[in-house]
Amino acid sequence: MIIKEIEVKNVITKSNLPVCDFSVNPYTGCEHACKYCYASFMKRFTNHPEPWGEFLDVKYWDKIRNPKKYAGKELFIGSVTDPYNPQEEIYGRTRALLTELQGSGAKLSIATKSDLILRDLDIIKTFPDVRVSWSVNTLDEIFKDDMDKAVSIKRRLAAMKAFHKAGVRTTCFISPIFPVITDVKAIIEQAKEHCNLIWLENLNLRGSYKAVIMDYIKEKYPALLPLYQDIYSLGNRSYWEALDTELKEYAAEIGLEYVTNDDSMSRPFSAPPVIVNYFYHSEIKKSARKGGV
Questions:
Q1: 206, 230 contact by CB (below 8 A)
Q2: What is the reported pLDDT for 85?
Q3: Cβ contact 109:21 at 8 Å
Q4: Containing H/E element for 258?
Q5: Residue range 216-228: average pLDDT?
Q6: In the prediction, which pLDDT does 269 show?
Q7: Which residues lie below 8 Å from residue 276, measured CB to CB, with a gap of 6+?
Q8: Are 54 and 107 in contact (CB under 8 A)?
């Protein structure tokens, strides 16, 4: 890893994402090196020559002068990095950010693939309406290791359970769903007692990592290559439409609500988790513009 410490004017930036008002990334780059990572596009703006997953910029910023201006605002921590990448244990930039925002009234959403976040459970649970999500797209640790360098799925699920037990709203983000490879139902069974929300997102191949994933499928799952070509070269949505129908029926069988927008904050903490389908990205954006997310 090539690690640099950099100074930035502000770590909190206005966001166009439909799920938040501001995005917050205490680091640029990520050690997890996920083969499918959409955030690899950041290299266009940072001019890093290193491959994605081999560099990390550690951010330092002037202390937030008026944190209360974010009261009631949605802040998404980790939109293009994992705020709990292994270097956080050394540099503590995410912990510093949380300390500066504590008592501000900001609403936080934190996305991670790590259990290092357990270190900060004490401060995270003091924020109103805070939600923490863990990405889980397989229960197969071998496939996980092929895809990323983050902690094991077992450790992620254990962290989710600990946060949920502590009264923090938790999300199991089943993403990205690899056609046929990701056993969505099995993941739901593992997670549904320990989360308030289950997000479903399809594998959306674009940019430089499309070839990486297609080459991986060709090598490791050659029988699936025609299906992947049908989906990602010909644009056939029938697989996702069939999976959508199947999971909707499955949710009804196990007594869970299945929706296309997220209203989980209005649900009692003790309520069963709601499953949210985010398969169709263009439709999500339309829904967001109408206030549906």
A1: no
A2: 96
A3: no
A4: strand 257-259
A5: 98
A6: 83
A7: 197, 198, 199, 200, 259, 260, 261, 262, 264
A8: no
What is residue 34's three-state secondary structure? coil
Residue among 190, 192, 187, 113 at smallest CA distance from 145 = 113
| Pairing relationship of beta strands 22-24 and 169-177 according to DSSP bridges | unpaired
How many whole angstroms separate alpha carbon 105 and alpha carbon 75? 11
DSSP one-letter code for 291: T
Contact 167, 125 (CB under 8 A): yes
The tokens describing 252, both together, are 């009804």
pLDDT beyond 80 at 60: yes
Query: What span, in angstroms and rounded, lies between the C-alpha atoms of 270 and 251?
Result: 18
- Number of Cβ within 10 Å of residue 44's Cβ equals 9
Q: What percent of the chain has pLDDT over 70?
A: 91
Tell me the average pLDDT of the chain.
90
No. of helices (H) and no. of strands (E), the chain: 11, 12
Q: Residue 263 above 90 pLDDT?
A: no
For residue 105, what pLDDT band results from cuts at 50, 70 and 90?
Answer: very high
Tens of pLDDT, residue by residue over 225-250, are 999 999 999 999 999 999 999 999 99
Question: Residue with structure tokens 């050659």?
Answer: 222
Using CA atoms, how far residue 105 sits from 120, 132, 185, 249, in Å, is 17, 16, 36, 39
CB 256: neighbour CB atoms within 10 A? 17
Q: Which two tokens stand for residue 184?
A: 């969505």
Cα separation, 58 vs 61, in Å, equals: 10
Q: How far apart are CA 61 and CA 202, in angstroms?
A: 35
- pLDDT over 80 at 40, yes or no: no
Structure tokens at 212: 């990486």
